[in-house]
Amino acid sequence: QAALTQPASVSKNLGETVQITCSGSSDSYGWYQQKVPGSGPVTVIYQNDKRPSGIPSRFSG
């Protein structure tokens, strides 16, 4: 089972680029966006660097 670590929080000003580093033992990972607590997450990156249709290019992996 993969074990991944990422920061608990990242702070930036509006319009600035945010980079979240994820480290660990996984060969393939995805990123998910949850805008509102309790709502379902949206996949923004899968298989390390692929974007689903409709996800803007500002999301990268």
TrEMBL record:
SUPFAM superfamilies: Immunoglobulin. Residues 42-61 are annotated as: Disordered. InterPro entries: Ig-like_dom_sf, Ig-like_fold, IgV_Light_Chain. This is LV1 protein.
